[in-house]
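RECORD TYPE: inverse folding
INPUT: structure tokens
STRUCTURE:
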């Protein structure tokens, strides 16, 4: 067979040139795949919201996702994404809450309010004393196994430092390798062993996976925004600069802490 030559279609060439000559046309609709996913939650939906605010996005948005959610549920999801994502708006919210509720009410926010520096810029002194939950456990609160892992891992890294995610990657790897070792090699068997895993001495301490696929016990670091706080732990990212660790709590105890100011280590 002769080699085929690839080139413009003779039947569509005129149409294509006509389209280019006419200039770009406005889209009729915007389709967003994975609208309930993490990327859309943190970045895409807040960015689209800003475009709508400025009048630069005027077409309908169609969301596609595997999540089983109805229209009202999707609207609530988008509203939550937009509300949580804007750090500057979060600062104004904190300032308004402090002005309304007074200085003695305990305010607890999620790590979506980071970076702390930008939060303080928006909230001013109203952010002082605010508690932020995170998933980043500082090195001072790690188990002996975790500290030993960091020391050994840092020796293999250029500059002798260890990124904060290395602990989580190591813990997940240990759980997965243990599940593979106990399995018969099939995917179904590995999955069963993952849910049956009971890690007792990992870099982040003891852990298991519950039926929902979440790590249990869920150790949640709680940081406190401190006007004198500084970044004293090189393990933590810069967006926590200006906050210091207050405690490590478990998820069921976090609500009790918020209601009763109960101190749980």
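DESIGNED SEQUENCE:
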């Amino acid at each position: 067979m002769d080699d085929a030559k690839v080139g413009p279609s003779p039947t569509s060439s005129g149409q294509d040139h006509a389209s280019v000559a006419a200039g770009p046309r406005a889209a009729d609709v915007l389709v967003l795949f994975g609208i309930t996913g993490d990327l859309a939650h943190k970045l895409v939906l807040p960015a689209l919201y800003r475009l709508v605010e400025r009048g630069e996005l005027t077409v309908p948005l169609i969301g596609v996702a595997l999540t089983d959610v109805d229209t009202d549920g999707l609207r609530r999801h988008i509203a939550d994404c937009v509300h949580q994502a804007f750090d500057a708006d979060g600062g104004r919210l904190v300032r308004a809450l402090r002005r309304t509720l007074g200085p003695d009410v305990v305010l607890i926010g999620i790590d979506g309010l980071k970076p702390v520096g930008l939060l303080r810029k928006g909230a001013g002194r109203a952010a002082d004393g605010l508690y932020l939950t995170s998933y980043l456990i500082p090195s001072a609160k790690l188990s002996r196994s975790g500290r030993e892992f960091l020391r050994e891992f840092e020796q293999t890294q250029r500059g002798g430092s260890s990124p904060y995610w290395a602990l989580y990657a190591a813990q997940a790897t240990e759980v997965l390798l243990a599940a593979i070792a106990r399995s018969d090699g099939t995917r179904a068997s590995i999955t069963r062993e993952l849910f049956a895993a009971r890690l007792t001495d990992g870099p982040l301490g003891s852990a298991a996976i519950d039926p929902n696929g979440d790590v249990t016990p869920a150790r949640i670091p709680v940081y406190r925004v401190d006007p004198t706080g500084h970044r004293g732990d090189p393990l933590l990212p810069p967006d926590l600069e200006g906050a210091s660790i207050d405690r490590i709590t478990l998820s069921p105890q976090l609500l009790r802490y918020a209601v009763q100011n109960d101190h749980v280590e």
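NOTES: The mean pLDDT is 78.
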